[in-house]
Specification:
Length: about 180
């Protein structure tokens, strides 16, 4: 067996998803529009000719528009920072060659930015799949260790279909030669 058949790596997409780029851009553009309208109402003249309407009184409409624009700008800035830091992104590596499982994720900046968990293959008892149906259905694959600790190995915010979750869990259980629970 060659080394490629002994190592499997699954990439976990963090905040760098298309939907996050879309919403952070939309909120940024909307908040700039609100902020410019509020500032224009304060000065009594249009800052940007394309917005054109100077018939808004500063108190209370202009003040509220400035507030919502500032708030939206801060939310957008936070969202762009999450995308830049790629919070939640990383990989799951299952290495039969060295006998280890490595789960790596990027977190928020600080001393715990790098979340790097390593376990031996001997510590793994089973792969467990949890399916929660309903309005906010969740499908999660857990790595269950012998000390009864369960570690989620699917990414957050990337809903997988039932077929995909079954396929991924069964392939992983076959690769690691351990039992599969929950299906």
């Amino acid at each position: 067996m060659n080394a490629q058949n002994l190592i499997r790596r699954y990439i976990i997409v963090g905040e760098r998803r298309f939907s996050n780029y879309w919403w952070s851009s939309s909120i940024l553009l909307g908040s700039i529009g609100f902020l410019l309208t509020g500032i224009s109402s304060y000065f009594g003249s249009s800052i940007m000719p394309i917005f054109g309407n100077t018939n808004i009184n500063f108190f209370p409409q202009g003040l509220l528009m400035s507030f919502y624009g500032s708030l939206g700008f801060l939310v957008s800035l936070y969202w762009w920072l999450l995308i830049f830091w790629n919070v939640g992104g990383g990989f799951n590596e299952f290495n039969k060659k060295d006998g280890i499982i490595r789960i790596f994720r990027w977190g928020y900046p600080g001393k715990n930015r790098r979340i790097d968990l390593c376990y031996t293959l001997k510590d793994v008892e089973a792969i467990r799949v949890e399916l929660q149906q309903g309005f906010d259905s969740q499908r999660t694959i857990y790595l269950r260790l012998k000390n009864k600790r369960e570690i989620p190995i699917t990414g957050i915010g990337q809903p997988l279909t039932l077929k995909e979750i079954e396929k991924q869990a069964s392939e992983l259980a076959n690769f690691l030669q351990i039992s599969l629970e929950g299906l």
